[in-house]
Amino acid sequence: MLLNKLTLKQIIGLLFALFCLYFACRLMLQGSGFYPNPSLSDIALFAILIVIFNASKKLFYFVLLPFVLLYAIYTPVGLTFGAPSYQYIASVFATDLLESKEFLSQLPATNYLAALAIIGLVLAFRVITQKNKLYLHKNKTFLAAVAVLMLFSNSPFTFVKETYTAGMKVKNELERLNNLSIQSEWGESTLTNSKYDDYVLIIGESGRKDYHHAYGYPVENTPFMSNANGVLIDGFTSGGTNTIASLKLMLTKPDTQNWEGNYGLNLIDLIKSAGVRTYWLSNQGYLGEFDTPISAIANKSDEKIFLKSGDSLNTNISDFKLLPKLSQIVEQPATGKRFIVVHLYASHPITCDRLDDYPKIFKDDELPKKYFNVNCYVSSIKKTDEVIKQIYQELVKNKQKTDRTFSMIYFSDHGLAHHMEGDNIVIHNSSGKSKRHHDIPLFKISSDDTTRHVYKVFKSGLNFTDGIANWIGISNPIINKEIDLFSNQADKDDYGLQKQIEKIDVPDDPAVVIPPK
């Protein structure tokens, strides 16, 4: 029926149908993460697409509905974490079953209701228009073809195009990691003025700098890092905003123009090229058949131990379980130099689950409800500080037995962001949701340190592999000898990081301070 001869019942039905159409399109655009506040024109373009495909039963159920379902499935994630990107697609490949469960449990119930509402509203639009014979089209095939051509570069298809592009990028990277042998491009390296016998690199997880007492947070959650002799750097920036995106840049000598990791120039191959024996001890997940970029680098090590692999994917393993494994490595008889990576689970969301074997700093019943997650987060940082302390003590004990000198570094792979969700402060890993996402701790302590230094100076995570090489005393033509992670001189270039941070158009989210009693 044409619109010029509508009955009152049909007019009411039309208004309700348009109401359903408007909110369905708005929710889908918001849920995609690309349009937090979609304009009326964006909504109208999406609505036109639905109207045209509604012209045909087959088009609606076999083309449009799957398309809508794709949006609905991603909406719970998109409303909180934003648009799909390379970093999140890569994280999917590296996420184990436990992490998936924890990740989904972070999403508020309203996000899932929005996903259901999308499906319900689109189906309601279909039912109302068909029941009342509200044919909002003319030539079905022609209009459908024109709509696709006109809208392909606009809002309805942005989600699909970007997801496809990011997915193909990850697919190609994983195929390279798993199907090809990554050959070292370092050539020969030599040790020059290598001062210590054992070098230990502790990789933290999700530890944002300003939540550490060592960096000014008023809660005393870093008693070791805040007081130990050594060098604390205030101004170190991560390579990315999640584990894979960050560490693939920091544990290789990356392409600093395009911010891409170079697996042929990875840190482990560099250290091995200098004749140093390498070890990788990890509490991060390892998926065996399908390497992630980080496990692919780890697999280059002479010896590797993953606490979470195979049938332990559902196990929440404490970082304290790493310590006996580290002791076994350290106590092995050795004549040459050793490089040991200890990859923690640390403050990985959900941080409350990291505290099964460690007390919270504040009792939950003594705090307002909204600080529940903050209490867990700052307490998980204190647990990490305790792990670092015990690693240091183990190295000291070994030095007393064997006279092997050591130096150890701690840093975190990336920070986190937070926002209010109802009455709760939610802390999560959300790319683009915080200007402080790249702000991470960096601390070094050695067996011969007798003083403490704190340097407030910029250091780029994209220089990390160069800095580690110079820390160990490795000479290689490709290494920039000027990079010193622990000097009081700033790095000369941030490779465009500050410009990227300035583009983040969200209110600042400084550390949330739990008020005293």
Plain-language structure description:
The protein is α/β, with parallel strands linked by helices. 43% of the residues lie in helices and 14% in strands. It contains 16 helices and twelve strands. It has helices spanning 8-32, 40-53, 57-81, 86-94, 97-106, 109-131, 140-151, 155-179, 223-227, 243-250, 267-273, 293-298, 322-330, 372-402, 464-472, 497-502; strands spanning 190-191, 198-204, 230-237, 277-286, 303-309, 338-343, 406-412, 417-421, 424-428, 442-446, 452-460, 474-475. The strands form three sheets. The protein has an eight-stranded mixed beta sheet, sandwiched between helices. Strands 1-12 form a two-stranded antiparallel sheet. Strand 4, helix 12 and strand 5 form a beta-alpha-beta unit. Helix 1 crosses helix 2, helix 3 packs antiparallel against helix 6 and helix 4 (86-94) crosses helix 8. The longest helix has 31 residues, at 372-402.
Helix content: 40-55%
| Portion in strands | 5-15%
| Poorly predicted runs | none
The spatial strand order of the largest sheet comes to 5-4-6-2-7-10-3-11
In angstroms, what separates the terminal alpha carbons? Answer: 69 Å
Number of β-strand runs: 12
- Overall form: elongated
Instruction: Find the structural class using helix and strand composition.
Output: alpha/beta
Order of helices and strands: HHHHHHHHEEHEHHEHEHEHEEEEEHEH
Number of helices, counting only DSSP H or I runs of 4 residues or more: 16
Radius of gyration: 27 Å
Largest sheet: 8 strands, mixed
Rounded mean pLDDT score: 88
